[in-house]
Specification:
Blueprint lengths: L7 H14 L4 E5 L7 H16 L3 E5 L12 E5 L3 E6 L1 H8 L5 H6 L4 H9 L6 H10 L1 H12 L12 H5 L5 H18 L1 H15 L1 H9 L11 H23 L7 H8 L5 H30 L6 H28 L6 H14 L9 H4 L3 H13 L3 H5 L7 H6 L2 H6 L61 H75 L9 H32 L4
Parallel strand pairs: 1-2
Antiparallel strand pairs: 3-4
Helix pairs in contact: 9-14, 10-12, 10-14, 11-14, 12-14, 12-15, 12-16, 12-18, 14-15, 14-23, 15-16, 15-18, 15-23, 18-23
Amino acid sequence: VLIGSLSGGQQKRVSIGVELLTKPGLFFLDEPTSGLDPGTETALMHLMRRLADRGRTIILITHATKNVLLADKVVFLARGGFLTWFGPPEAALTYFDPFRSERERLSGPMEFDQIYALLEDASKGTPQQWAARYQEDAAYREYIVNPLHGKSKAEAPERPNIKAATRRNTSSLRQLMILSSRNIKILIRDRSSLALMLAAAPLIGLLDFVLSSVLGPDLFGFNDGDVTDIVITLFLLVVYGVLVGALSQMREFVKEGEIYRRERLVSLKIFPYVLSKVWVAALFALYQTAAYTIIRYLAFDMPGGVMEVILIYVTLGLATMTGMMLGLFASAISPNANTAPLFVILLILPQIVLGGALVQLPDYVTAPIPTRWAFQAIMGITGVGSDIAADVCWTLSEELRMAMTIEDKLSNNCNCMGTNALRESSCNTPGVGGFYVAAIDESPPADPPPPPERPENPVIPEPPEQPADESDQVAVAEYLTALQEYQVLVEGIRSDSEAAFTEYEAELSLYQAQVVAHQQELVEWRIARQSAVLPAEGMIALIVEDYSWTFVDKDSPERYFRFVATAWAAQIAIILTLLVVILIVQKQKDIH
């Protein structure tokens, strides 16, 4: 039965019962029987009597006088707080009876209700006069003066150690089981809150479909992907877990403040109490993480296989659990339920601003921030910068990188520089493939054919010699015939030489045109490659500058798993630190 459905009288009895669970040695009650039926009132007063008989001190204020005779002593106060009687209830009746009128005494024996009328009757005396009368009476000396001055401390009867005798020592495991069972029952009964907690993660996760419709599902694509969009969506995924986790747990401690204080008086141990909250929060973290992970893989084309799904689930689960612990911490330090959301805001905002995704900050600033480690691990698991991390060329100084030619980068096996940066098999960086041009994989233009060989200059033979005897007609005739033949030969040689040179000049002109065309094609080829490589390298340089701390070479299992394990260890350390702090804060709430 929920407390809110109880009547006023039932709630009062429940409150008294809760107090009695602590078995107090001194019990103050204000109007405990008001609103109760006569039977319940009598039962309650007899219960108080039994507790007093066991050595407890019961002090209660009441206007119901039916069962006053069960008390050891009764106090009557007049207006202004003046003491008009302290002593046994039977003696009070005897003391006040003489102040009644004759008619009142004849009407019946003295009752406690009539004492109220006497004290309110101005004709019987003022509050000061009633106090003076009591101080002059023997009862004052018997019940107040003598007990205060006539008995030494040693004569006082030894009171039993109620607290030690009644407190039971319940094991921590038993308390954990009881508290866990109670927490689960409370969750199940509060169906609206349970439904909201179960629906929160899927509803928030559905935002991924909105992002997918705007940004596109292929964020990790070599051609159409975008590292900036990847960073935003992955960081939002981490923020989902931390934020919803913190909000779902921000009232767990503060709503039970009074219950906690009472139960601490009956041997409630802090560690089982806190752990009962933590493990239930862990169950919700597992559920919420599953919702986020499933929806993320449905909305986006995530890289990797089953192993990546498991690693992302564990990483996001730790982030969500960290958010739960932040919510529990906010609840622990909140003085009331109204301030808990404010503390959550103060704790969550640094997770967003200092997480490393929005603003680049030094490691010593982001180290205590859970979102930084979760974001770093998920980026590494998705392999966004795996090939970049494996390329030692990106560890060189900017001056050296700028001085290297494309050929230098190829010869030095720079996987994410030069033309290799535009090959998916070499450097699978999202979005870089958009700069690809055909010239990247084309061979350079073929060299022109060799230049034509220049023909040699013609060799003119020596002319025939003139006859020594010009009078010799036969010799002169032979000479003229030979000279004529020589002239024909020379003319043929010259004609052939001119033809050869003409052909050479034509071939030379063609060669020169081919050389010019080759040079032009070579320049265009180089410009096309350079115009693709430079922006690709520029994009990678910006990515390296902003997010290189989230990159790890997945082809190196040792480095990869050490990278992920380090992020997990940091998250676990933060969770354990928050657990210790919560225990300390809860300890400070103890009532000594």
